[in-house]
Amino acid sequence: MSVLVCFHAHPDDEVFGTGGIMRSAADAGHRVVLVTATDGALGEVPDGLLTEGESLHDRRQRELERSAEVLGAQRVVVLGYADSGMAGTEGNTNPHAFANVDVEEAARRLADVLVEEQARVLTVYDSHGGYGHPDHVQVHHVGVRAAAIAEVPFVYEATMNRDRMREMMTANPNWDPGENEDASQLDIEAFGLPESELTTAVDVSGVLAAKRAAMVVHESQIGDFGPFIPMSDEDLASAFGTEWFRRIVPPVDASGAVRETALPL
After folding, report:
1. For 72-199, where are the alpha helices, taking DSSP H only?
2. Whole-angstrom Cα distance, residue 68 to residue 76?
3. Per-residue pLDDT reduced to its tens digit, 69-93
4. At what angle do helices 13-27 and 208-217 cross, to 10 degrees?
5. Who's near 216: CB < 8 A, 6+ residues apart?
6. 11-20, 118-127, 255-264 — which is least confidently predicted?
7. Quick one: CA torsion of 252, 264, 166, 168, rounded to 10 degrees?
C-alpha cells in the first residue's frame, strides 16, 4: 500500500483535477488523504440553499466530507485558513487569508501530515494555480515547500491541458470567439499548461461515475459543476476522462511528450 495525498485550496477543488486518481488509487488498495487549505467561505452559493443559521463554511465542510467518501479518501485534513476569494476581490486583503499566510508556517503544518502519513505521492497545483486564483497559487508554494521538508519522493502539479481545452472549445458549436475574440483567447491561454510541458496523463474514464457523483455532492457550488452534471457519458469522458499532471519531483527532462500514464503508487 502506498499513500497519495492531494492538496487543494477549497472544498470542491478535489473533484476536477484529482477526483479520478483518488478513486482509482483507493480502488487499487492505496491510502488516499485529502487536504484542503481554506474554509471556502467566500464561494458563491445559490439563493435559498442554506438553512436558517447554517453558514456556507459549515455546508461546504459537510459537502467535502461526502465528496471525500465518494472519491475514496480515508482521511480529510482541513487546515482552516480563510478563503482569499478570486483575484482582485476584497478577500485578497484579509491578512488571515491563505494567500497571505507565511509559506513556511503553512508548509510545516502540511509537512506534519505528509510525514505522519508517510506520503509517497503529493499533488499540488502548477505555479499559476491552474487559472490564477490566489489560494491556488499559494497551494503550489506551500505544497512544494512542504514536500521538501517531508522529503516526499514524488510531487506532481495537477493542472489542465491547455491545448486540449482549446480544441474542445473551438469544436463546440455554442462557442463563438467572434463575439469577443481577444478575451476568449486570453481566457484559454490563462488556463493550465500546454501539453508540451505535461509529463503525465492518467486515464480515469473507468471511475467517471464517482467523479460525477462527487460533483453532485457539492450542491452549494452548483455554479461550478452545473454545466457538467447533465453531460452524456461520452462528453463527460471527453472533458474529464483524463487527468493531467507535470511531475516536478523528481524532475523530468523536457521532451515535448507525455511520458507517464499512471502515478507511481
Report:
1. 103-117, 134-150, 162-171, 181-189
2. 7
3. 999 999 999 999 999 999 999 999 9
4. 140
5. 225, 229
6. 255-264
7. 160
